[in-house]
Each structure stands twice: as structure tokens, then as C-alpha cells.
Amino acid sequence: MPIGDRLVKGFNLNLSRSDQLTLLVLIFIFLIVTAFRIVNQEKGIEVIIKRPSRININTAPLEELQSLPKIGPRLGQRIIEYRKMHGDFRYIEEITRVKGISGETLSRLAPLITVKDSE
Fold first, then answer.
1. Nearest CA-CA partner of 63 in 49, 80, 51, 47
2. For residue 73, what are the CA distances in angstroms to 22, 44, 65, 115?
3. Do the Cβ atoms of 54 and 67 come closer than 8 Å?
4. Reduced 3-state DSSP string for the chain
5. pLDDT confidence of residue 15
6. Per-residue pLDDT, 42
7. Architecture label for domain 55-114
8. d(CA 79, CA 19)
9. Distance (Å, rounded) from C-alpha 71 to C-alpha 83?
10. With contact defined as beta carbons under 8 Å apart, do 54 and 75 qualify?
11. Residues forming a β-bridge with 56
12. How does strand 55-56 pair with strand 113-114?
């Protein structure tokens, strides 16, 4: 007995051979779409986990600086201008010398930024 017959007869349906095949194809499509969604969800989680842990404020471009909390286009540009005028930051606390970055902002940024190349 063909697989389509066994699958459909289990539900006690009186379907033509063509309808059985259509039903079987729809079931397979459903399974493939479901598997695809599960794989993509797992990849999404993986991407979040693999995100770099710290942004180097000495080398980050404006777009990357803006991904930090409390850093918009203006503050990001000020950080870049500070780097150009004073050279690299030697320690992360030095970022409070940039106009608009307070100690409170630093406390939010500290776990997300670095001044070293390999952190």
C-alpha cells in the first residue's frame, strides 16, 4: 500500500488519488516551513550571543558608537572629534571629558566599551 494511502486511510477519508497526493504535498510543505522557521530562530539567537562584547572607543566609527546606549549622532561625533584632538583614550573613564557624557552615562557604557584592541 502506497504511503499516501496509509496516511489518508488512518483518518478514514475517502479521497481520490489526486486529492491524497495534494494532501501529502501540503503536509510536507508545512513540515519544511516549520523546520525552516525553527532553524532561523536558532540562528537569530546565535547572532545575538556572538555579538562583540565591547566596542573600542578609539577605533569605532560613528555608526558603531551610535549603537551604544545614550550615544546619538552628536555625542558620537564629539567622541570622534575628541579622539582627533587629544589622541586615543587611555582608559574608559576619560570618555567623561567629552561634553555631554556624564558619570551616569559612563556607568551604562563601561561594560560595553574598551580602549584596548583585543577585549
1. 80
2. 55, 27, 8, 20
3. no
4. CCHHHHHHHCCCCCCCHHHHHHHHHHHHHHHHHHHHHHHHHHHHHHHHHCCCCCEECCCCCHHHHHCCCCCCHHHHHHHHHHHHHHCCCCCHHHHHHCCCCCHHHHHHHHHHEECCCCC
5. 75
6. 60
7. Orthogonal Bundle (1.10)
8. 66
9. 16
10. no
11. 114
12. parallel
Rounded to a whole number, what is the distance in angstroms from the first to the last CA of the chain?
63
Q: What is the pLDDT along the chain (119 residues), one digit of tens a residue?
A: 566 566 555 566 677 888 888 888 889 888 888 887 877 666 655 544 455 579 999 999 999 999 999 999 999 999 999 999 999 999 999 999 999 999 999 999 999 999 997 55
pLDDT for the residue numbered 28: 87
Amino acid occupying residue 38: I
pLDDT on residue 23? 83
CB atoms within 10 A of CB 16: 8
